[in-house]
Design a protein that fits this description.
Blueprint (H helix, E strand, L loop, with lengths): L1 H33 L2 E11 L4 E11 L3 E8 L7 E5 L2 E6 L4 E4 L16 H5 L8 E11 L2 E10 L9 E7 L5 E7 L5 E13 L2 E11 L6 E11 L10 H4 L4
Antiparallel strand pairs: 1-2, 1-13, 2-3, 3-4, 4-5, 5-6, 7-8, 8-9, 9-10, 10-11, 11-12, 12-13
Length: about 250
Amino acid sequence: MIKKLITVYLLLLTSLSFAQDAKEIVKIADEKMQGLSNYTTMTIKIVRPTWEREMKMRSWAKGTDYSLIIIDAPSKDKGTVFLKRKKEIWNWLPSIDKSIKLPPSMMMQNWMGTDFTNDDLVKQSSIVNDYDHSIVGDSTIEGYECYKIQMLPKPEAAVVWGKVILYIDKSEYLQLRVEYYDEDAYLINLMNFYDVKKMGGRNIPSRMEMIPVDSPEKKTIMIFNSIEFDIDIDENFFTTQNMKRVH
């Protein structure tokens, strides 16, 4: 009986250790891509079987609570701003000179006609705090040996996915693939990361592709043109008033 209890105890400790390790791995990988704060210029390409569309944008972020994105091109979308301030998501439309607060029900909708959701871009949910993490295997992605980490949403978390699988490089903690599943465990979106290069003083993937699994002929490509980490930026930059002035 004592031997069985010791075995159960050791298994429990091992399970807790792996869970903690998994969360720490995700935290390191997330902080590597985000920093304490960042300023990024990006190009987004929407690829469809018969047409392509390109957008240019800039973004500022501070921690996981604050982010602001402004569209610079094309001209018809220029000046459109998205703001995340803690749990609130706002959209400013210059054509009607109005700020609109996005309800949680819109987080799963596609962002600006891309294959990214609103949640993907403004990161309403936190991959560190809103999920329980566990290492479920190993894999090789583009020659990198990776942890395969399963993330299941916490019961109280307001997240849009039923399950997320992350593939994180073991040596440099690079996010190299993300699988997004719905509540019925069906794979919906696949995001792949490419072109690792030094940007902002650290090695990170500079291009990512989001592919809807049921329409593999479609994809959205996000390219980081430049990025600065740990910039000096105040929380007061991320206000609905500044959405109109940031241009």
